[in-house]
Amino acid sequence: MTFLLLGDISQSTLDPAGVGAERIAELFHWMLSGGVLIWLIVVGLAVYSVTVPGRHRPRLTKTLVIGGGAVFPTLVLTSLLCYALAMLPALHQPAPKTGLTIDVSGVRWWWRIGYRTGENERVETANEVRLPVDQAVEFKLHSEDVIHSFWIPALGGKVDMIPGRETRLKLHPNRVGRFRGVCAEYCGTAHAQMAFDVIVMQQADFDQWLRDQQQDAREPAGEAAVRGRELFRRKGCGACHTIRGTDAGGRVGPDLTHFGGRLSLGAGIKTNDADNLRRWISRTHDVKPGVQMPAFKSLSDRELDSIVAYLEQLN
Amino acid sequence: MAMTETSNRNEINKTDHVTSIWWIVVAPTVWAVHFLASYLTAAIFCAKVADSDRSAGEVQLAVMAYTVVAIVIIAGVGWAGHRRQRDGHGRSPHDEATAADLRRLIGLSTFLLSLLSAVATIFTALVFYFVGTCH
Question: What is the ipTM, given to two decimal places?
Answer without folding.
Answer: 0.80
